[in-house]
Request: fold
Amino acid sequence: MTQWKHADFKQAQLSEHILLTLEAGGYTACWVGGCVRDELIGRPVHDMDIATSATPQEVEKLFERTVPTGIEHGTITVVIDKIPFEVTTFRTESEYKDFRRPEEVTFVRSLDEDLQRRDFTINAIARLSDGSLVDPYEGQVDLQRKKIRSVGDARERFREDALRMLRGVRFASVFAFEWEKSTWEALLELRGNMAYIAAERIRVELEKMIAGAQPTFGIKMLADSNLLATSKINWTTTQLQHPMMQLLDRLPAQPAELRWAALLQAFGVPGEQAEALMKSWTFSGSFAKSVSVLIRIDEAMNKVNESDDAQLRLTLVRCVLDHGRESVKLWIQYRDHLQATTDDSADLIRQASTWLKWIPVDTPRDLALSGNDIVAALKRKPGAWLGIYIRRLLESVALGHVQNERADLLKALEEIDANFAKDDSR
Ligand code: ATP
Ligand code: MG
Reply:
């Protein structure tokens, strides 16, 4: 069996079985792209993609379980033991429209032609079932020299598909590679073509870049090149000086909300705008929301004077009631990573964790008094007032001022009612 040091054993074994099956059918087959590159660099291998001379129909015939995931681009997913493997027919991409991926592909029988259409030399290395490498563009040399270099003429490659420029930035950032001069120059020349690229493809590359070891390296490249001029925030070098940006690399890559919140804060995007912005970048609604909530909580807590414990606690309680306990926990994690350096802020984080643990209620359902109980006790018709009373009860319990017991709550209710009447008469 071909040795893979950085791939999952079963994945390596099953993908080799696919290669051997294709070969037994009379076709050429190899591992290619990310898995070969990552194995050579010594990084964990994820997907073990396969390329073959067999057409999609021929692939379908050879395997029991297949899914035509991208059949128009030549990709069939072969599933063995519930593990999916992408098997893609060797192809060239002849007709490019509007600097985007081609709408039509031409299947070819030769591996060399297939490698020629790939973006960078480091991604154009194939591995055969006997373990040997096919590397016509000297991708291994570039891996050693840590260089991002286009396969063939960079300008031509970027004109064909402008996303490749951003992919290059992503690979350079994640692997801490430099750009080969003419490839970088081609990027500077053709960066305007990024405007033709779908937001979703851009988002996927940015997500991978931000999750890498040193996202600020990539952000600096984006600032230097102005590659994302059309992306609604200014990737300029001034933002690189922002304290939040300085701390970005220190945040863990997961949960991804942490780094995205820091990034947006460094760019001065307020929490209330963050959600719409993230959605316009095609992030999921729930991810966009949790990033924006994280920023909102941070804004709310930062507004309070650091020495005003009562106000800090009240703000924290309100954040729990408004955004949920999990969001506040995430914020604690955020600040913990960002500020662990200064004693004062470490104190606040400790304090906030303690307060959070002591909050016995999250929603009205947790109160020992229901809306009906309140209506009955005050003998009044339900109305807008009820929500306000419940919220006040919740806050009092969450702050530890009132016990979550029926009798205590009824007493607190009387006070709330008296104050409310006073407020109302003003
Ligand atoms: P990752 O680790 O993110 O999966 P990858 O190199 O495998 O990195 P994929 O997007 O999975 O990236 O693509 C698989 C391979 O397909 C690449 O290694 C490259 O050879 C080729 N490829 C992907 N996108 C392009 C593109 N836009 N232009 C040319 N070749 C591409
Ligand atoms: Mg991949």
DSSP finds 21 helices and eleven strands in the chain. The CA atoms of residues 1 and 108 lie 28 Å apart.
